[in-house]
Design brief:
Blueprint: E1 2-10, E2 13-16, E3 27-40, E4 43-46, E5 58-63, E6 69-72, E7 75-78, E8 89-94, E9 104-107, E10 110-113, E11 118-123, E12 126-128, H1 131-138, E13 151-153, E14 160-163
Parallel strand pairs: 1-3, 2-4, 3-5, 3-6, 4-7, 5-8, 6-9, 7-10, 8-11
Antiparallel strand pairs: 11-12, 13-14
Amino acid sequence: YVNGGTFTYSNNLVRLGTDNPTLGNSINGINDITGTNAYYFNSIYVGGSGVASGTVNSFAFRSSNTGTRNISNNVFMNARSNGAATGKHYAVTYAGTTPNPVGLTTNNNDYFVIGTGGVLGLYNRADVLTIAAWRTATGQDASSYNSNPNFTDATGTVPNLSINSTIASVLESSATPISGITTDYAGLTGNRTTTPDIGAYEFA
């Protein structure tokens, strides 16, 4: 929950929604309210299945911030799935009403949803169902993806949001280098400064 300041948030892992998967709670992996903020190389997973009741929505990344914000090289996955509930489960939402809203820079991300009630994005109060439509609506994310990141074990007792390196991935070498961020979540360099991978982990 980010509510002010001028900060960079990088190499974070967030896993939410799996401990009490059927509860109809409002869940946000990262909630960007206000401030001058940058989000780089984060891996977010929102889960839970058979959500039993309620109309609340969930977001892997939620930004109502209208200030300067840069969101790049992240994995935002929402796998939450309804039972009797009617809320929607989004990978992402950004504040804005027109393409290229003032202050927003976003690219080289992976937005992925799976499950009943899953919707790729919410923009200008409208559901956006495909990455192509998302690019048109926001005017951004030309080099972003809508692809299963294939986390190693997002739902385990000890969650693992590294990428399963046995499966070919469009996230490989698809990020852009960020000045000052030279290692991944595990402290490894990999190709972080040259051809980095999308998400908190470098992988091969």
